[in-house]
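W.,

You were right to be curious about this one. When I first looked at the sequence I had no strong expectations either way, so I just let the prediction run and decided to look at it fresh. Below is the sequence, 221 residues in total, followed by the output.
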Amino acid sequence: YKMRRELYQKIGFALSVVFLCIVFISLIMSFFIYPVMTKSESMSPDIPSYSVQLVSPLLKMPKRGDVMVVSNPNEKNISVIKKAVNTLCLFVTAHQWKPFADKPRLYSVLRRVVALPGDTVYMKNYILFVKPKGERQFLTEFELTESKYNILLNSLSSDIDLELGAMGNFDEILLSENEFFLLGDNRLECSDSRLWGPIKKSELKGKVLCTYFPFSEVRFF
């Protein structure tokens, strides 16, 4: 009986440690920092495909040029235990898989903030022109941001239709007080605010702090 009781105590202690670890990781991922993996070329050349980034969910109010994680569609409500298991799986797989979801295989949507609430924007030849709120003239996206970044246009042929797909030209759009305009750096092959429309603040889930893997691509944003 004494040996059995000691065994039960050890099992209970082990389960308590596992539970506390899950809670601890969940708190870290919910409030401080978590990893995501980028699989697409949408943010090339600065963020290559199959690279891993660290994201802070604390930083949800972006500046011009910040790279943000955009939310996926809302999921159904699940129990606290399932959320904890999902959180642990997301942490160890760099936000690629969680068991209790409609689509367990996930991908993170990263896009760059190029215009803020109240701005007026238009695009010409894949370059965004921005008139900040209260200003009278348009400037290019690169003139307004302190963050230096590169965009990828590949070989832009003369016969490409700039009005189709990921448009290269569009007329002026005025952003409301709760809207941001986000673009991918790969302007020819990317879904972003040109197709989705402006993004609301509630859809921004965190700021990308750095790329840390592969080590040859380490970069801070």
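Here's what jumped out at me. The mean pLDDT is 83. And, maybe more interesting for your project: The chain is about 25% helix and 25% strand.

Coffee later to discuss?

I.
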